[in-house]
Known about the structure:
Blueprint: E1 2-6, H1 10-23, E2 29-33, H2 36-46, E3 50-54, E4 56-57, E5 60-61, H3 62-67, E6 75-80, H4 84-93, E7 97-99, H5 104-116, H6 123-134, E8 143-147, E9 152-156, E10 160-166, E11 169-174, E12 180-182, H7 186-193, E13 198-202, E14 205-208, E15 212-216, E16 222-225, E17 230-232, H8 238-246
Parallel strand pairs: 1-2, 1-3, 3-6, 6-7
Antiparallel strand pairs: 4-5, 8-9, 10-11, 10-14, 11-12, 13-14, 15-16, 16-17
Amino acid sequence: MKILVVDNETNIRKGVVEMIGNFCEGILELHEADGVSTGLQKITEVNPDVVFLDVELDDGTGMDLLSKLSEVTFHLIFITAHNKYAIDAFKFSAIDFLLKPIAPDELINAFKKVKMQNKNKHLSSQLQVMQDSLNKITSLEKKIVLKDSSSIYFINISDIIRCESSGQYTEFYIVDSKRIVISKSLKEYESLLEPYGFIRPHHSHLININKILRFDKVNGGSLIMETQDEIPVSHRKKAQILQFLDNL
C-alpha cells in the first residue's frame, strides 16, 4: 500500500508519517508533500492508494488540489483543525477525516475503514455535498450522505421525516423512499440534525418538526407525523416539547 501525506505544517506531516509507520500494518511506501503543487506532483509520480490531505495549505486548499485532478483514484482522508461547522460538513458528506491533533487510535481506525472499503466510486458526489455544506447553503437544500451495507444515499435533509433508534443502528424514514438502516447511534445524528429543525421527543425517536401533523394529548401525549406515524413523547420531555411547539 502506498500512502501520501499532504500537509503544510512540517511537524504535523512528519508526525502523521511516523504514526502510520509505527501503528499501521501493511504499509509499503510513505510519501510526503507540503502543498497543492507538490501534492499534485506526488500523486502523478506515486499513484497512491491513500491520501491524507490537509484542508488548509499554503498555496490553496485540499479542495483546490482535488479540483485539479481529472479523476480521484485513491482513498481520501482529510486532516483538519476546522471549527465545528466545518467538521459537520465532513460528517454530512460521510468523508473520513482526522481532527488535529491526531490521536493514534483514530489513525488506526481510519486505516481499518480503508481496508474494508473498495475505492469510493461515489467520492465526487460526497465531495460536492461537503462543499455545499461549507458554502453554508440553506437547510432545505442541505444534503446528508447515508451509507448502509449495500448502498450510499444522498438525501435532502428536508426529506427526512424521522429517525428511530434500533440498538446500535438508526432507522431513517424518508419521503417517498424506503427505510434506510445505518450502523450508527441515534445520538450521533441528533447532534448533527438538531440545528436543522429536528427534535428528540423520546429517547428512541428524532423527528423533523416540519413533518409534524399534530400533537395528540391522549395517553400522555404523542406527535402524529404527516405519514400518520405516532411518535411517543416521554413524560420528561413533554413540557419541553409543548413549549417548543408553542414557539413555532
